[in-house]
Design brief:
The complex is a heterodimer of chains A (about 160) and B (about 550).
Chain A: E1 3-8, E2 11-16, E3 20-25, E4 39-45, E5 48-54, H1 55-59, E6 71-78, E7 85-99, E8 104-107, E9 117-123, E10 126-131, H2 142-145
Parallel strand pairs in A: 2-10, 5-7
Antiparallel strand pairs in A: 1-2, 1-7, 3-6, 4-5, 6-7, 8-9, 9-10
Chain B: H1 2-6, H2 9-38, H3 43-58, H4 66-77, H5 81-108, H6 113-121, H7 123-143, H8 146-236, H9 252-407, H10 412-545
Helix pairs in contact in B: 2-8, 4-5, 4-8, 6-8, 7-8, 8-9, 9-10
Classes of the chains: A mainly beta (about 160), B mainly alpha (about 550).
Chain lengths: ~160, ~550
Amino acid sequence: MLRIVFRVKDESYGVPAGRVVEVIPRVLLRPVAASPPGVAGLFVYRGTVTPVVDLSLLIAGEPCPDRLSSRIIVLALRSRATNGRRLVGLLAEGVTAVTMESGDVQASLLIPGAPYLGDVARMGDRLVQLIEPEALIPDELYPVLLLESPAGEDPESTRRPVSS
Amino acid sequence: MSFFRNLGLAGKLLLLVGVFVAVFAAFAFVSMRTLETVRVNGPVYRDIIQGKDIIADVLPPPQYIIETHLVTLQLVEEADPAAQAALIERGNALRLEFESRHEYWRRTLSPGVLADAMNVTAYRPALEYLDTRDKELLPALKAKDEARVRAILATLKQKYEAHRRAVDEVVRMATAQNAQLEKAAEDSVRSSSRDLLWLGALVVAVVLLIAWVTGRMADELSRRIGKAAEVAAQVASGDLTASVPETSGTDESARLLFAIRRMTADLSSLVTRVKQASIELMSTATEFTATSRQQESAISGFGSSTNEIAAAVKEISATSAELLATMEGVNAVAAQTAQLAEGGRSGLRGMDETMHQLEQATSAISARLSAIREKTSDISGVVTTITKVADQTNLLSVNAAIEAEKAGEQGLGFLVLAREIRRLADQTAVATLDIEQMVRHMQSAVSAGVMEMDRFAADVKRGVSSSQQVASQLGQIITQVQTLSERFDSVNHGMRSQSQGARQISEAMAQLMDGARQSATSLKEFNAATAHLRDAVTSLKEEISHFKVPG
């Protein structure tokens, strides 16, 4: 299973490549007032207003440093309530590599207050903690932040050209 | 003459009066004799009258026309025309003489009876006679009118008679007047002689009176003068106590006595003062002696002082000579300093040129470095572009891998390709990172170089200005050293003049010592003179003690 690997404060994290719509360069975000913690702002991705979560802000409490490798990973989420498809951006640095290594799950962690942090797997000589994309946005915020995509449209089957 | 000189004043007066009386008597006698000889009816007077009478008796009188009448009668009788003409001529001459004499008498006679008789009563018939003769007789004669001549002649005779009577009257009057005048003269002479006798007696009496009065006065005068002489003799003998009698009046003798009295008083006070003065003089002479002794000691002290001063002046002279030599040495050192400064200045000038070249070189280097910096920024732009390309490639490969994953089995090959592409992009990124770092190093090095160059250029500029400053200071040193040499010259001059002055002072000191020696000898002489003075004052005191002073 292919995974996208990135860094937050020198530690490696990963998301499954099957949930990723596209990796795009960092764009200017429109901030949202009184937004929940970790939400960096909104931007328009191919006609859809998409919220962006800053992982560095969420995990380490510091905004993501402005680097070339700091990129936005656009994920397609499935609503638990409506089972509709929603898009969310994940801002992180070091988004430059993919890996085929599945790795052995070394520890299954369930940290209260941080439901998005999943299992820790050993990949080569480093430990990579997996991110649960669905847990990034709290349930009550889904209707607010994530607009429903039209029903019947399968994001995974939709092939879109990569933006430059 | 000695007899007259030794005679007393009264005797002299008596002698003078006697001589005067004798001379006066002689004068009176001679006057009387002369008066007697020349008086009217005196011998001389008679002689003169006699001479006049002779002339009057012999000559025909011009104012009495008797000759004219005679000539007229002859003319009438004369028949010869030549004789007639001579007679007419004679008649004219007589008329001229008559008129001239009449004019004389008219002028000289004082107006009176005699003058009337002479100039009117006697003259008028005579004039009528002459007019008748010239105007009537002579034409009648020429006409040979005998009858008329007789008639005119009768008229003429009448006129002549009238004239003759008048003349007789004049003669009578003149004679009477003469007698009267002679008598008056006689009386006058007689009374004058008597007056003269009286006057002579009076003169003799007055002279005798004057002689008596002057004798009295001379007696008084001689008495007073004798008193004055007596007092003067007393004063001469040294007795100033003699009293002079008080005199009244302001005549010469009184003034003489008064003057002698005053003289005596003045002399007495003078002698008193002289006595006091001689005492003071004595004390002064003693003081002189003491003072001169003090002065002698002072002069000997002065001599030693001048010796010391002379030694000090010699030392000053020697010191100034040494100073002179030192100044010459200093002068030489200053000249060397000036030369050295000149050398330093020329060296600095060379250094200045070098500095300028260095400055130009540094600015050139700076320009090159700026060019290099621009190039590196160009390189940096290129590197940035490469980095961007690598980044895009990486992104592309990641997205390709995601798409390949989604494609499943069919996308495996594509996944490998994407990985290769990503690795290539990573290598490119690393290489560009290296290049970027190198370029950054180079940029910083160039920046440092530029800064260094700037600092160096500033240093060089400072060095240039410093060297210029040093050059100007050296120039100042040179000028100051040159002026120093002039000052040294003036100091040398001053030293020389000072040494000369010291020599002059030394000579002056020697002269001063000579002077002190001379004044010491003079003081000795002065001492001797003071001793003489004391002797003289002593003798003066003895002399003065002869005078007896009242009080």
